[in-house]
Design a protein that fits this description.
Elements: H1 23-34, H2 37-44, H3 48-62, E1 67-70, E2 74-77, H4 79-112, E3 120-125, H5 129-137, E4 142-147, H6 150-158, E5 164-170, H7 176-185, E6 191-205, E7 226-229, H8 234-245, E8 259-260, H9 263-271, E9 277-281, H10 282-287, E10 291-305, H11 312-322, H12 324-331, E11 336-337, E12 344-345, H13 347-350
Parallel strand pairs: 3-4, 3-5, 7-8, 7-9
Antiparallel strand pairs: 1-2, 5-10, 6-9, 6-10, 6-11, 6-12
């Protein structure tokens, strides 16, 4: 079945109503990756001449060149070109969970108005790279995917607003605070868990780790610029617990109060040089060409009502989780593994 995906598009216009070609940002990204205008034009799917025209138009529009071209040295972005590129990537990373949720709502509405309505599985979960993989593997099973924090997802499960709730629990003592919260929301008689994935969380740093950042202790009382996750996220709680275990006050972490809303947005912030480090998953670090310092492993599971496991759509969903194709896709994500993927877990065994 066809699925609709919502993606953001930038539009630059000035006071006179002049607009830039939307291919410009795509071309700037290709220049950044390849360092040659010929290769960048090929990736952007435009001619070399059109690429030249786009860069000229962009320079005229902003009054500053966006790409510096030197004979024998190829092409590189100017400071403004880099600023535009990283702004676009940060915005896309920040908006992607909301746009994915909107796309899920539109797909569900379309499917409900078509003949032969297929089963719908409602999943509320925090945004992540493995969760993003699910719609590609579910086949006829329609997924209504809404992104929210783990506690919001479990609250939705308990008021029957969703069928599955994603939650992640750090291994070891650093996960004790989350464990106590989950005990209040997950009842052994009423709920079961589906094993999903395990993932590494840690510090994303510039290539080569020039500041020698090797743990949370390196964030305190040093001129290190940090970018944080929002307070409601499970990743933020994990960071706070790591700081507490190390006896570090958040007030001593420069930039602790500055927040982004996804792993990718944090990585884009660091890659743009706006921060020296941020906390998140290894997959986001690799996507933005950053190095990664692993600090914790957490298990990401999907909670459901016990009686729901008798429904055919749950059998279909578990079959997908247990499939070689899905688990291979998870294994290809840096720092991820399909730990207990597709197994049904009792609440006491997990907590």
């Amino acid at each position: 079945m066809k699925r609709i995906k919502v993606t953001p598009t930038w539009c630059f216009s000035d006071d006179d109503g002049q607009r830039l070609d939307t291919n410009l940002l795509r071309l700037l990204g290709a220049v950044h990756r390849h360092g040659k205008l010929t290769h960048a034009a090929a990736e952007a799917g435009i001619s070399y001449r059109h690429a030249w025209n786009l860069l000229r138009q962009g320079g005229d529009f902003f009054g500053v060149s966006l790409v510096e071209l030197e004979r024998g040295r190829g092409a590189r972005l100017s400071p403004l070109g880099e600023k535009l590129l990283w702004a676009e990537q940060r915005a896309t990373a920040r908006l992607s969970p909301q746009l994915d949720s909107l796309g899920s709502e539109l797909n569900l509405a379309i499917q409900q108005h078509q003949e032969g309505i297929q089963p719908v599985l409602r999943l509320h979960a925090s945004h992540g790279f493995a969760i993003e993989l699910l719609p590609q593997h579910l086949g006829e099973l329609q997924l209504d995917l809404q992104y929210c924090s783990p506690l919001e997802a479990l609250a939705a499960l308990n008021r029957n607003s969703c069928d599955l709730a994603g939650c992640h629990l750090p291994r070891g003592s650093v996960g004790e605070k989350a464990r106590r919260k989950y005990r209040r929301l997950l009842k052994p008689r009423n709920h079961r868990l589906m094993g999903f994935i395990a993932r590494q969380q840690g510090l994303m740093v510039a290539p080569g780790n020039p500041l020698g950042i090797d743990g949370v202790a390196a964030l305190a009382n040093r001129p290190v610029r940090f970018i944080n996750r929002q307070a409601s996220s499970g990743t933020r709680e994990l960071l706070d617990n790591l700081l507490a275990e190390a006896g570090i006050s958040a007030a001593n972490v420069g930039g602790y109060e500055i927040e982004e809303y996804t792993h990718s947005a944090v990585a884009a912030y660091v890659a743009a040089g706006m921060a020296d480090t941020g906390f998140g998953v290894a997959a986001a670090a690799q996507r933005f060409g950053l190095d990664f310092v692993p600090l914790a492993t957490e298990d990401y599971v999907l909670a459901c009502h016990y009686h729901s496991l008798k429904e055919p759509k749950f059998d279909d969903f578990l079959r997908v989780l247990r499939s070689a194709s899905f688990q291979e896709a998870v294994n290809r994500l840096p720092g991820y593994s399909p730990h207990q993927c597709g197994s049904v877990i009792e609440i006491p065994d997990f907590l």
